[in-house]
# Entry
Amino acid sequence: MSQRLGVIDRYREWLPVTERTPPVSLLEGSTPLLPSRTIGAALGLRRLYFKYEGLNPTGSFKDRGMVVAVAKAMEEGARVLVCASTGNTSASAAAYAASQRLRAIVVVPAGEIAMNKLSQALMYGAKVVALRGNFDGALAVVRELAATYPVALVNSVNPHRLEGQKTAAFEIVDALGDAPDYLVLPVGNAGNITAYWRGFKEYHAAGRCRVLPRMVGAQAEGAAPIVKGRVFKRPRTVASAIRIGNPASWEGATLARDESGGLIDAVTDTEILQAQIWLAASEGLFAEPASCAPLALLARLAREGRVEKDSTSVVVLTGSGLKDPDAALNNVEPPIELDGDARALAKVLKL
Ligand code: F0G
# Structure
């Protein structure tokens, strides 16, 4: 059996690591690229894949960038990490800090993040501060904090985060033998779309792929600053991970979109929740609401005939559905409560 490697060991020569970079790893990355069994056919798409990032150690893609950011922060002598987060970044920062015996301070918008993400940060032992306001305000505060005090900022404005995250693009090419025609992903603070585009371009320049994908980004209608070209002061959506009104990597996202000939569009909360249940019930893949925004967008584009049938598409499922079950549970039937024996059970099941 081949040895499993974390992101730094697997893609060392593509990352800003040296002999002095500490060997940080929770065996992140190397996530499955699953061919669709149902949805692709239903949409008339011959080749549709899901990159299931929910199988990273803390349940989201954030671990790819966090491992590099934490290793580099340690190399530079940092002992305290800080980040603002809609939840997943804080879970990831807290886990890597715990594994390296660093302190983590995470600032989250009060009342706006999913309980399971909060529980992760708390269990990993981070100091959690719930700041009144939204994510954009929290990010501004931690940026100022890191500019003044000896703490390492590990949000995606830290360039090492994007370096680590670009490895997801490498994995897709390594698995498919080339880049897909469409790479479809959610856009919140816009670091990930920026990182993927960088990864594909680097592999392309090195002759590892012939195709450069069109980058297709999905925002939620109530939090669609890049789609609308304006800051959203009060971003609103069921997809709390991407409830962001003023993305830090705005320019990176528009560059990825424009250089690749792609697009960034918005989907409604209803479309997101429909896509979530479709994905779970027809493919066996439970992803959090933000992760389902790109599937909702791809479904719309396919129905409008805007995706060629013979193309290859990859939808990035950025976080596990277990992160935020509350958002999903309104759309399924509750369990049947029953007092009784096998006969009673057979009767309610109409067997
Ligand atoms: N999907 C999930 C599950 C996320 O947690 C995020 C971002 C995104 C998509 C969007 O990625 O910001 O690079 O455009 N979550 C951040 C956080 C903001 O704090 O966990 P992006």
Residues 60, 62, 85-89, 156, 186-192, 241-242, 288, 290-291, 318-319 surround F0G (CB under 6 Å).
